[in-house]
Design brief:
globular; mainly alpha; ExoD; Exopolysaccharide synthesis, ExoD; transmembrane helix; about 65% helix
């Protein structure tokens, strides 16, 4: 059983351990690394993976967004235990790709763990965390449309990752920043999609 993570570095350590035997890592394996503090890591890890080369695989951003939306919906409903359907649990990524993704995320994790922690903690609990979950679902809904444009889905995923980090480390100030980035990401995505549509006409 993986230790309960309390930082982004802890999560990456657990993911690296999952991939250490060289076997493909499934969504179920990744969920195992979340420990008891489920909601934050469960939305943050898929969002961070989308920002790595793993997210360049066609269909992966949309799959990751579906997983995140499922988790966020359960948070909105107040469920205490994370449920993931079997067909998603069985989705796999190679150990090599997972190792590369973890390596790419190490510098970002170090920065996050150093600068984000314990401010305005009240904003990371209900009802604010459920409001954040609703915003996360809206962001996820934009990903399938943005995936067809280069790097466009990274904006919503960055905002989602920040929401997850805010809940993980109980940082309400970061929650506010994540809300602002969400608004920018959705407006930017709409503009980017509109520009792409005009360019293809």
């Amino acid at each position: 059983m993986a230790d309960t993570p309390h930082s982004v570095g802890d999560i990456l350590d657990n993911l690296s351990e999952q991939a250490s035997d060289g076997k493909p890592v499934s969504v179920g394996d990744i969920a195992h690394t979340f420990g008891a503090r489920t909601f934050g890591p469960a939305i943050m890890v898929p969002a961070l993976l989308e920002l790595t080369p793993v997210g360049a695989i066609p269909g992966v951003p949309t799959t990751l967004a579906a997983i995140i939306a499922l988790v966020a919906a359960q948070k909105m409903l107040g469920m205490s235990h994370l449920w993931i359907p079997g067909f998603l649990k069985r989705r796999e990524v190679s150990a090599e790709k997972m190792d590369k993704a973890v390596g790419k995320l190490r510098p970002l994790a170090k920065f996050m763990d150093k600068h984000f922690h314990g401010r305005l903690e009240r904003l990371t609990h209900a009802p604010f965390s459920r409001i954040a979950a609703g915003v996360v679902i809206l962001l996820c809904c934009t990903v399938p449309f943005l995936e067809v444009l280069p790097f466009a889905s990274s904006g919503p995923m960055l905002a989602i990752a920040m929401f997850g980090l805010a809940v993980l480390v109980r940082d309400g100030a970061l929650m506010i920043v994540a809300l602002l980035i969400s608004a920018i990401a959705m407006l930017g995505g709409a503009f980017w999609w509109g520009s792409g549509g005009e360019g293809s006409g």
